[in-house]
Amino acid sequence: SKLTSLGQLEMTWRSRVHFNPLLVRVLHKSRLRYYGKPDKKVDMPYQAYFEVADASGMMSMVLWNSLCPEWYNSIKVGTVLLLEQYAIKNSYPFKTQPTPGDSQMKRFATIEISLNVRDPPTKISIIPEEMVKPEWGLPEVKYRFITRSELEDLPNNHSCDVIGLVTFVGRAERARKREHGEDFWVYRWAHAIDGTSDQPFILELFATSQPDMFEHIHPMTYLVCTQMRVVRDLTENPSSTIYLTTSNESQIFITGWHKGQPYTKDTKVKNFIQWTKTQSEADQMKKTVIGGYYPFPRPPNNFLKY
């Protein structure tokens, strides 16, 4: 009965120690971050960001330490949460910002909700979707799906969501995070088609915190990738090397995991499913490829340019 809103929190947080419960919907979810250092004594040095919203707007929520292994996989995009005994902090200025599906939504960027095991011990409750009432005014999850034919007109770094039928998936490769560091990013290339163009989506998929998806991307699976960023080679021929890469908030889903996801209501997703029903599986199978070395963007034709 005594709920507060994100808008009220922003106005009153400095003058309060205890806050009323919050009822919010998760709109974005970041990958899990490990911040352990050899000299620091933190039992479970994990952190994950979520963007949560109610009728008043959207704010970041941070899950800390041992709450991450306990809650990270249960809190999905679209999940409704009741939060009690949380802390409010000034927001971290250098974190990545996902692009909201609803451009009209107000963003509270100066503060963030902090969920910890103590000081104070946060209580998190997941409200089942069938118990969510319309009068709570929680926003729906909105997406920015594009078709392959629309990709040519999008600027560098534009944020979008895509769905396609996988025709190629490369082996997992590694790239150093820093020049002489010992940490690596793991990524793989994939191609996906959606019937709107002769060209596939070229996808650079970094390992998100979803190993069960990342490791099982196969040809002929329906692949959904959210919060992807357009990468254009602006130097030479802009159209030849346009591809999409994952961001910190990207989520990937493959056949078998789509049921119940909020994007299944999206018009472009429905159009894609209609298109797949017109395709012959045997014909598409002939065109699929798996594994091998995939040099992309392609090196120039002669050594001088290289």
From TrEMBL:
Example GO molecular function: single-stranded DNA binding
Protein's name in the database: RADX protein
UniProt organism field: Columbina picui
Name of encoding gene: Radx_1
Domain of life: Eukaryota
A UniProt-annotated Pfam family: RADX
Gene3D superfamilies: Nucleic acid-binding proteins
